[in-house]
Amino acid sequence: MEDAIRRRVLIVEDVPLSARVAAKILDRLGYGVCAVIETGEEAVPGAALHAPDVVLMDINLAGAMDGVAAAKAIIESVGAPVIFLTAAVDREIMDRVAATGAAGYIQKPVKLLDLKANLEMAITRRRRERPCPTDAVAALYRSLLFAVATACATPLVVVDPEGRVLFSHPDNSIAGELFSETFPGRPAFPQAGDTPCEGASGNLLGWVRLSP
Fold first, then answer.
1. Rounded to whole angstroms, how far apart are CA atoms 83 and 125?
2. 3-state secondary structure the chain
3. Out of 69, 124, 143, 175, which residue is the most buried by the measure of CB atoms under 10 Å away?
4. Cβ of 206: how many Cβ atoms within 10 Å?
């Protein structure tokens, strides 16, 4: 559970005994409890403050805001996955729970295996939904390359070693297509006038051709 040790869980529960039980189970699983909050009204700003990886949310809470309303607000504002913990099973409640986009639903008393499975699924789902940092970097470099090519008024195409277009100016809509299909009759491999793009170890990452 090395990965889970770094995961922080916010418990929203107004029954101290239930909160302690959940905290003990989380401890056994290797998760840390960043805070225990008793009301829905405090849970929303608390989630923003503590930035938990997962929220364990009781439905019936003290105060005017119940767990379903608090979960919806947390998911929309913070984006943290919410797993409901409750003894209540009601069709109306289940419909409201489903509408929040919650990551899971566990009936009390909490069982270790149930909680473990829900936590791991919630974290995995959040990782997949989050944009990859490398995607943002790639988008930035494409924007910069397009700006430079536009400033120089130079038509060009960037091709990977397999012959697929990575970037093209002025028409970048062909990105992802094969060079040989987009520019039939033209060599789909580096020529004397093309500029190779090499990695740190000298391996060919692609090549650039001006005025394709």
1. 12
2. CHHHHCCEEEEECCCHHHHHHHHHHHHHHCCEEEEEECEHHHHHHHHHHHCCCEEEEECCCECCCCHHHHHHHHHHHCCCCEEEEECCCCHHHHHHHHHHCCCEEEECCCCHHHHHHHHHHHHHHHHHHCCCHHHHHHHHHHHHHHHHHHHHCCCEEEECCCCEEEEEECCHHHCCCEHHHHCCCCCCCCCCCCEEEECCCCCEEEEEEECC
3. 69
4. 21
* Nearest Cα to Cα of residue 75 among 122, 14, 128, 140: 122
Give the span between the Cα atoms of 107 and 66, in whole angstroms: 17
User: Span 123-133, mean pLDDT?
Assistant: 64
Q: Which of 119, 150, 134, 111 is nearest to 22 (CA)?
A: 111
CA 107 to CA 101: how far, in whole Å?
A: 17
> Which residue type does 164 have?
R
pLDDT band at 4 (very low <50, low <70, confident <90, very high): very low
* Confidence class for position 204, pLDDT limits 50, 70, 90: confident
Q: Which two tokens stand for residue 85?
A: 């913990």
- Tens of pLDDT, residues 61-80: 888 898 889 998 888 888 88
pLDDT at 102: 84
Answer yes or no: pTM beyond 0.90: no
Q: Tell me which amino acid residue 129 is.
A: E
Mean pLDDT of 16-23: 89
